[in-house]
Amino acid sequence: MLTPFFYHDDKNVIAAALEVYVRRAYRAYIMHDIVHHVHSDLIQKGVHFMDFRFRFPEKAADDQQLTAMHQRSYSVSDALFNMNKAGGSSTKEIWRVGLMVSVPSLAHLRDSFSQLIERIPFREPDQDLPEDQQPHELTEPSDVVNIALQMDSDAENKKDEDQKVLKKLSAFVDEVKALLRGRWVRRITFMIPRKAALPAYFTFRERLDYAEDPVIR
Fold first, then answer.
1. According to DSSP H, which parts of the chain are helical?
2. Stretch 180-207: mean pLDDT
3. What values do phi and psi take at 105, rounded to 5?
4. Cβ-proximal residues to 101 (8 Å cutoff; 6+ apart), any chain
5. Distances from the Cα of 167 to the Cαs of 29, 76, 160, 162, 178, in angstroms?
6. Shortest CA distance to 191 belongs to which of 160, 145, 137?
7. Within a domain: residue 68?
8. How far apart are the C-alpha atoms of 163 and 175, rounded to whole Å?
9. For the chain, how many structural domains are there in total?
10. pTM of the shown model
């Protein structure tokens, strides 16, 4: 499991763990421009992050790519996005932007989020232009944010813990909803490490007005 290494004392170990996670999670995609960022003020707070570009393979029916898709946790929403793009007439490469972050607390995330989200380009559509004349190639929210977040819990069981975590995450996402929409973030996913157990995942989607999607929890 990679999650313990997201909070290692050595920042190089953290960077390596973040990259391995991204390469595994997005192995069905073509990856490009994986960039680790070193900001001393954020590192002092225990915040580490990287951004990357990715797109769906043009030959979606390739057996190797389909095998990779079946072997990973593949979002139905992302799959529909990719099929729509693959079935379109445009030959322009659709590069999406991803952000991967590890942060030791929700308070630190609040303090640093406006700085982190700047790594995703501002792509608000021009309301005066038709869809095919927009200043970028995407016509719907496309980018993703992944956050590994440590959260303390005093809940007595998993269900109670999930509800407490969800309440805190929902409040935070509601605070930053305008930033997410302005950057055309399709989804923001939180990975919450647990002791002696697999991490918990909470995903908030733009199509749900950034409410949590419990289907893929």
1. 11-25, 40-44, 63-70, 76-86, 106-116, 158-175, 177-182
2. 92
3. -165, 160
4. 47, 48, 49, 109, 116, 145, 146, 147, 148
5. 32, 24, 11, 9, 19
6. 145
7. no
8. 19
9. 1
10. 0.79
Is residue 211 within 8 Å of residue 170, measured between CB atoms? yes
Tens of pLDDT along 148-165? 999 876 666 777 888 999
The DSSP secondary-structure symbol of 116 reads H
Is residue 32, in this structure, part of any structural domain at all? yes
- Residue 158 in domain: yes
Q: What is the pLDDT of residues 206-215, one digit of tens each?
A: 999 999 999 8
Burial status of residue 157 (CB atoms within 10 A of its CB: 0-12, 13-18, 19 or more) = exposed
Q: Rounded to whole angstroms, what are the CA distances from 48 to 3, 22, 27, 40, 44?
A: 13, 14, 22, 10, 10
Q: How far is CA 149 from the centre of its chain?
A: 12
* Tokens 């490490």 sit on residue: 193
Cβ atoms of 55 and 95 within 8 Å: the answer is: yes
Strand segments, DSSP code E, in 27-161 are: 30-37, 48-55, 96-103, 143-149
DSSP conformation class of 176: T
With respect to residue 156, please indicate whether it lies within any of the assigned structural domains: yes
Determine the structural domain holding residue 16 and report its residue range. Answer: 3-54+95-124+133-216
Assigned token pair, 163: 């509800």
For the chain, give the mean pLDDT.
Answer: 81
86: left (phi over 0), alpha (psi -120 to 50) or beta: alpha
The CA distance from 131 to 72, in Å, is 33
| C-alpha–C-alpha distance, residues 203 and 184, integer Å | 15
Pairing assessment for the beta strands 185-194 and 143-149 based on DSSP bridges: parallel
